[in-house]
TrEMBL record:
One of its GO terms (cellular component) is cytoplasm. It is an enzyme of class 3 (hydrolase). Residues 1-118 form the Tyrosine-protein phosphatase domain. The gene is ptpmt1. It is found in: Membrane. Residues 39-107 form the Tyrosine specific protein phosphatases domain. This is Phosphatidylglycerophosphatase and protein-tyrosine phosphatase 1. InterPro entries: Dual-sp_phosphatase_cat-dom, Prot-tyrosine_phosphatase-like, PTPMT1, PTPMT1-like, Tyr_Pase_AS, Tyr_Pase_dom, TYR_PHOSPHATASE_DUAL_dom. Pathway: Phospholipid metabolism; phosphatidylglycerol biosynthesis; phosphatidylglycerol from CDP-diacylglycerol: step 2/2; Lipid metabolism. Its main location: membrane. SMART domains: DSPc (SM00195).
Amino acid sequence: MNEEYETKYFCNSAEEWKAEGVEQLRLSTVDLTGVPSLENLHRGVEFALSHREKGSSVYVHCKAGRCRSATLAAAYIIRIHCWSPEEACQMLASVRPHVIIRSSQLEMLRRYHQQVCGGGSI
């Protein structure tokens, strides 16, 4: 969920991770004010689900782990449990108190919820 400049100099490249056996999915999202797109939420959740089916783990991160990655993690919870966006965010905050889901991110999660659960939370 990082912007390109955040990973250009201080992170392994996709090729370096691949050589270590790590599959990577980068979903560029603007820091602080950015909202993961609906398409990126779907892509990220599908990526996580495919690894879950294989019995492997997925590490979701952004620069601080407060907004962008939390939004994707909430989308994953929504997909797995069909919880409302508010319930998913409350669960995240209970295990990671520094999470911040802004109103624009919550609105995107509501759109995601409606698509994957058919819920009327919009």
